Amino acid sequence: xxxxxxxxxxxxxxxxxxxxxxxxxxxxxxxxxxxxxxxxxxxxxxxxxxxxxxxxxxxxxxxxxxxxxxxxxxxxxxxxxxxxxxxxxxxxxxxxxxxxxxxxxxxxxxxxxxxxxxxxxxxxxxxxxxxxxxxxxxxxxxxxxxxxxxxxxxxxxxxxxxxxxxxxxxxxxxxxxxxxxxxxxxxxxxxxxxxxxxxxxxxxxxxxxxxxxxxxxxxxxxxxxxxxxxxxxxxxxxxxxxxxxxxxxxxxxxxxxxxxxxxxxxxxxxxxxxxxxxxxxxxxxxxxxxxxxxxxxxxxxxxxxxxxxxxxxxxxxxxxxxxxxxxxxxxxxxxxxxxxxxxxxxxxxxxxxxxxxxxxxxxxxxxxxx
Amino acid sequence: xxxxxxxxxxxxxxxxxxxxxxxxxxxxxxxxxxxxxxxxxxxxxxxxxxxxxxxxxxxxxxxxxxxxxxxxxxxxxxxxxxxxxxxxxxxxxxxxxxxxxxxxxxxxxxxxxxxxxxxxxxxxxxxxxxxxxxxxxxxxxxxxxxxxxxxxxxxxxxxxxxxxxxxxxxxxxxxxxxxxxxxxxxxxxxxxxxxxxxxxxxxxxxxxxxxxxxxxxxxxxxxxxxxxxxxxxxxxxxxxxxxxxxxxxxxxxxxxxxxxxxxxxxxxxxxxxxxxxxxxxxxxxxxxxxxxxxxxxxxxxxxxxxxxxxxxxxxxxxxxxxxxxxxxxxxxxxxxxxxxxxxxxxxxxxxxxxxxxxxxxxxxxxxxxxxxxxxxxxxxxxxxxxxxxxxxxxxxxxxxxxxxxxxxxxxxxxxxxxxxxxxxxxxxxxxxxxxxxxxxxxxxxxxxxxxxxxxxxxxxxxxxxxxxxxxxxxxxxxxxxxxxxxxxxxxxxxxxxxxxxxxxxxxxxxxxxxx
Lengths: 370, 515
Prior knowledge:
The structure holds 2 protein chains of 2 kinds.
Chain A: H1 2-11, H2 13-32, H3 39-64, H4 72-86, E1 94-100, E2 103-110, H5 113-141, H6 146-164, H7 174-180, H8 184-191, H9 194-197, H10 210-227, H11 230-240, H12 242-247, H13 252-278, H14 285-301, H15 313-333, H16 340-355, H17 358-361
Antiparallel strand pairs in A: 1-2
Helix pairs in contact in A: 2-15, 3-10, 3-11, 3-13, 3-14, 3-15, 4-5, 4-6, 4-13, 4-14, 5-6, 5-13, 7-8, 7-13, 11-13, 14-15, 15-16
Chain B: H1 3-7, E1 10-21, E2 24-35, E3 39-43, H2 50-57, E4 65-70, E5 73-75, H3 80-85, E6 88-91, H4 103-107, E7 114-115, E8 118-119, H5 121-135, H6 151-163, E9 169-173, H7 181-196, E10 200-204, H8 208-214, E11 217-222, E12 225-231, H9 237-245, E13 264-273, E14 277-285, E15 289-293, H10 300-307, E16 315-320, E17 323-325, H11 330-335, E18 338-341, H12 345-349, H13 356-361, E19 369-370, E20 373-374, H14 376-390, H15 406-418, E21 424-428, H16 436-451, E22 455-459, H17 463-469, E23 472-477, E24 480-486, H18 492-499
Parallel strand pairs in B: 3-10, 3-11, 6-9, 9-10, 15-22, 15-23, 18-21, 21-22
Antiparallel strand pairs in B: 1-2, 1-4, 4-5, 7-8, 11-12, 13-14, 13-16, 16-17, 19-20, 23-24
């Protein structure tokens, strides 16, 4: 049994390292923060982490199947722009129309109220998944390498986002914004459950940030079952040895499409949250690019091999959190913001180098290439 | 044997199967049948059509014409999984394992046990343990990643994976080529059990003694045609070999010249590494072929890697022509005049998608370059010379090296190193999975190189080969050289006895006899 534990730890050394590194950094951060270890700091941090954590999960799935997805930031941005139309929450609903080629086409009214918001969330997530599904189909049926296929589709998605929101704007329901970006106590007070959050049993949980709960929920309800499904297994198999996976009769094409679809879904979650958090839609191209690159960095820091086959979305979440905590330090130590990219780059290099330290212990240099 | 007897009680029947690849005939009007409860060997040189035959049966490729019947019903398999569903399971020479997944994952990859729609990790592990136990290899932990297992263990996992599919027809394509001797015995026992359960078994191997030991019946293929099928004992080994190559073989091994004055080329003094090599002292003279024998996995491959600069932290002295060398990388070993034909030609020997020409010159680019640029004229000259010298059968030098047959690929690996004009040639099981004809060419070439003054260190799992080719054989056991055999001592009995380290009365080549 001890043997088994040792094997598991050895196989997940990347994730374990990321978790430990995050724990150390975050404790240090709270120690140096004047209001450290408080619910307020935790809530603020969770809000800032959530979108990148979702994008990191999104990036993980195609990477496991040894394909990069350069469109995750674009999908996030596009879904955010859709959300800024669909989640207005006005009681009368939101009238939708399409202005194209000088035409003004009415598209009816999107329902308002709570049911309208719930429907809007479902539609936004479906749009994200659809974008991912299209990526998967282009890769599988177009037989185009993922990196170039998603570069192209990503540009299309950004184009759609720009079409929807040429300038930042739109509006998101204020209650929705308040409920999802604060603590569980605020959530309960907003949606009027648990005696508006005043129930005695609820008090010990009230400090927990909502985005943190959402993150855990999405990981448990979406990622864990996927990893243990036949399709999830096939994704790992494709990334590990595609030829062998084919010869073993695995559904390779379906696995790849599933990987990109899931990536689109996670990116959609990120975009939805970002729109809710900022209460608007914004087709911000540099931001989309930065999120895409940071998602790749998160995946690597989280112990997933870019070659595919090994790693986990859970590790990537920790990778994203490490990246974010690093930027938190800038605020505390009041370092000139212009230096931030430089520091981030250096720290990213250092973090990845720690992961590569094992190379020095290898006595048979042939193993470096396996 | 008449066709009536051949197809009597046949489980699988092929009739008139033909297949061409880009106009090249791979199979031509092949009729073939095999029965339940029999081990049926399929013999032939590389390129004889065996692989194509198997691929057709296993659903990897589709025949251009002909019919296939399984248990009396017409079948055609569009994919390997369709074949699996019909009970046809193949263990391919190229392993079909996913290195980053665990042993248990790999064994149940196609149809894992499930609970609530999700993979049941515990049941999957139990299943892996049961299947491994069936082969007698309980020591493989199902949690291990396949990547972390040695090649011989991976092959066991591959066999367990096939067993898990409950085969009616099991095809083994060189499936024992990487196994240790102990594991081979276990696999034989397992095959015997399957046979008595009525499974039809097709067995492809280049090792004649395996075929003799196992097969109830054998079919010989040559040039894409089925030549003859006969029952066990009807044909002698010599006759079978002749059927396979379609010509007489003069002498299988080139004669060994009498050796007189010896000039030491390579000398090892107390070489040790990580507990896997234990104070190895060995001398290889110019013009000498020294074999490394013993059971698989006793440090022979490690020794070759150590000499080639692949291993870090090797202690002891290596001298080449009495000058100490300490290669820290394969590049350094190359400049010291050492060449290695590695274990796995597909990953370590060749860049498969690159052209034959590129592969041939890749180790000797210095010699054909002017400044930083490769001289195209010199390059094509060098390629031509190499192809002619080793008689490599190629279409065009610009074709991808992956298009060649296994034997010709191995010739490319060897030719690549010969271009560097090495003084010391290390060979790591160079004839694994290679047909008889090419093997003989390689033996001749080895002797020729030795005669020209090279020192050759030759590891082989085939004892026959060691006896036939080598001037001297060092037997390794547990990282040590336990005995050196030469001249009349060089017999199969002696090799096996020393390999098992059971001959306590024999003088040990280095160090004390293992207690």
